[in-house]
Amino acid sequence: MMFLPISKEDMKKRELTALDFILVTGDAYVDHPSFGGILISRLLEDRGYTVGVISQPKWQDTSDFQKLGKPNLAFIVTGGNMDSMVNHYSVNKIRRKQDAYSPGGKIGFRPDRATIVYCNRIKEAYKDVPIVIGGLEASLRRFAHYDYWDDKVRRSILLDSRADLLVYGMGEKAMLQIAEYLEAGIPAKDIRFVPGTAYLTSSVEEVADPKIFLPSFEEISENKKAYAKAFLKEYQEQDPIRGKTLVQPHGNRYLVQNPPSPILLREELDSLYELPFERTYHPVYEKDGGIPALEEVKFSITSVRGCFGACSFCAIGFHQGRMVVSRSHESILKEADLMTRDKDFKGYIHDVGGPTANFRIPSCQKQSKVGVCPHRHCLGTTPCKHIEADHQDYIVLLKKIRSHPQIKKVFIRSGLRYDYIMLDKDDRFLRELCEHHISGLLKVAPEHVNEDVLKLMNKPGKDVFDRFVKRFRRINRETGKEQYI
Fold it and tell me: CB–CB of 271/234 below 8 Å?
């Protein structure tokens, strides 16, 4: 297998005169499934499309955006794995000195608001080529949104980027549908019906019912309560089963969000992570010392997608959704075995997890039929009585991985919901965790100790954490381990 083309020379080696899609990304090119833009690109390639990559283009003019030529179907644009503003600035708005997603960890390889800047440069270079935006930066800014750095409400990123379509959420199914329609000759301006996408229109007469109108950009810019009501409705409708079309006026135009894409089935998630990735950074970065972001994920396994934790300060539910889907044991074991053959593998799997490592099953069975509850949280401050807290599948999976003859240790470094662990009927998972899967320090997130603040965060009270710590210490005493939280 080869890296995706990054130059005309690469295209010549593949006997390509033009590419179907060109990915423009704010990250360096790391051919690994944890990099969302590359994951989508490899999926498109698997379905027969040709895809090239323009990583961290110089944005001062259009030359870098033209180096692979004009794509047959569309440009795909993403700011990268991290919002470019979060990537650049600390919470105190101080410019960061490092960028883990850039060569040698150096800063300055992408602009602020990268998605917007990239799209406008592409429009300068190729006025008639469709642009599809996606990734965290686009997904979380699809509606009018509060911007921390400007300290004001900004309009949908679709207006400032001038992109044709926005893919929100994880995006695989939506992007494949868009590709099929573009290949069939349907203009991007007419692709208005794909779940998991958003677009702009000057009229909503053709938008199918049922649709929900949100407070306008102008209204939420002036009224905080209107903003809160708008976001609540946006959040409640992020469900692939019962979610409705949302419409938000922006002046004389309308932002339309189609209902979310259906979540991937286990078999689909398995096949996605089994695509032929090179699982390392492109050789052009070798002289710079590589890409630091690869170090943590190279020997980590994504086992699950989605999170029903519903912390009020977290974007995962709004991006990945609250419905959990996990990969099969067979697929994960196949990936673990693949890692053992890497020349840099030292016997340690760094992580087997996801947004929340110990969520491997849906929070309850009814979700598959009616979706997640719009007015009720699975965990939150008080767990739902219907929640199914069961770690048995995860225990069996971890045992299988660590039984591989070439694997010395399997760590869990993704966040663990300790309140979910406390709901389990016995100590088996916590005991397994303490005996086999902690590198001396267990990472959990109590977030705060003040009860009022915890309620606003939609987190359990301090007493739950205290009880967890006592149980953790007891099991470590019983197993003769000296480990900490």
Answer: no
pLDDT of residue 189: 94
Spatial separation of the C-alpha atoms in residues 183 and 186, rounded to whole Å: 7
Burial (CB < 10 A; 0-12, 13-18, 19+), residue 92, is exposed
Mean pLDDT of 166-184: 97
Phi then psi dihedrals of residue 242, to 5 deg: -110, 0
pLDDT confidence of residue 446: 83
* Percentage of the residues of the chain whose pLDDT score is greater than 70: 100
291-330 residues labelled b (16+ CB within 10 A) or e (exposed): bbbbeebbbbbbbbbbbbbbbeeeebbbbbbbbbbbbeee
Distance CA 327, CA 401 (A): 14
Could you read off the pLDDT of 317-327 as tens digits, one per residue?
899 999 999 99
Give pLDDT tens digits for 368-378: 889 999 988 99
**Could you give the angle at which helices 266-273 and 329-340 cross, rounded to 10 degrees?**
10
Specify the pLDDT at position 447: 85
Extract the tokens encoding 184.
Answer: 């069939």
Q: Which residue has the tokens 């020349």?
A: 343
Task: Output the CA–CA distances (angstroms, integers) from residue 161 to 214, 323, 352, 405, in the order listed.
Answer: 22, 30, 36, 51
436 within 8 A of 410, measured Cβ to Cβ: yes
How far apart are alpha carbons 476 and 124 in whole angstroms? 62
Question: What is the Cα–Cα distance from 308 to 372, expressed in whole angstroms?
Answer: 9
* φ, ψ for residue 395, nearest 5 deg: -60, -50
What number of other Cβ atoms are within 10 A of residue 378's Cβ? 23
pLDDT band at 1 (very low <50, low <70, confident <90, very high): low
Spatial CA neighbour of 457 closest among 330, 312, 310 = 312
DSSP secondary structure code for residue 446 in this structure: -
Closest CA to 468 of 411, 415, 395, 419: 419
